[in-house]
Amino acid sequence: MPRVVLVEDDPSVRDGVEMGLLRRGHDVLATATGEAGLEAVDTFRPDLLLLDLMLPGMDGVEVCRRVRARGQLPIIMLTARGDDVDIVVGLDAGADDYVVKPARTQVIEARIRAVLRGVEAPAGVRHLVEHHGALAVDRAGHAVVRAGEPVALAPSELKLLLFLSAEPGRVFSRQDLLEEVWDHSYHSDVRLVDACVRRLRVKIEDRPDTPRYIQTQRGFGYRFGPL
């Protein structure tokens, strides 16, 4: 089972989430501050970070930014604010998904599994590398290279790119992408998609404001170029 670092300052929430995940077989290291959470990421070497957005001192957004600067550890934010701009800030900082508190353990578990779920390479393409202009996509190796340089992508960014680039030119609605990439069949928060697209454009586009690869179909969704 995946190893989880949990960062949550509310003792009742922290204890409840920790106990629920332990009962489901996870190894969990629970901390109460952002500073302790960063240290736990280094020492415990988790498979996923479950991170409260509102923390005393170093908040969850700053923790998220620092973890992302080090690598591509999957991150799920915990937040008590279901419609606050802080969620968008957290997603832009690099979080892969979020859960609104209070949340049942089975909901958190489902989000963990969805974020950690890999992308299957289609049969017969184990050594296929697709070239789209300066962008090279290795589906089997889950690697992306831009202008000869490796591109480090968070799990949600990689899955979104692989999904869109599998059918160049086809337009997918935001709800389609929520269901296919995030497995949010019951969820309609398109901020997840839009924030991931913004982060992905920064990493793969020459000019993110005038994207060549991830293009917007106004009022509907996104499609993969390039033009």
What does this structure look like?
By secondary structure, this protein is an alpha/beta fold. The chain has eight helices and twelve strands. It has helices spanning 11-23, 34-44, 60-70, 85-92, 105-116, 155-165, 174-181, 191-204, and strands spanning 3-7, 27-31, 48-52, 75-79, 97-100, 129-132, 135-138, 143-146, 149-150, 172-173, 214-217, 221-224. Strands 2-1-3-4-5 form a five-stranded parallel β-sheet, with helices on both faces. The chain is globular. The termini are far apart. The model is unreliable at 121-126 (pLDDT under 50).
Give the SSE string.
EHEHEHEHEHEEEEHEHHEE
Which percent range describes the beta-strand content?
A: 15-25%
Helical run tally:
8
Major sheet summary line: 5 strands, parallel
Ends apart, CA distance between termini: 43 Å
Residue windows where pLDDT falls under 50 for at least 5 positions? 121-126
Radius of gyration over all CA atoms, rounded:
18 Å
Helical proportion, percent range: 25-40%
Class from secondary-structure proportions:
alpha/beta
Shape field: globular
Task: Round the mean pLDDT to the nearest integer and report it.
Answer: 88
Placed side by side, the strands forming the largest sheet appear as: 2-1-3-4-5
**Strand tally, please?**
12
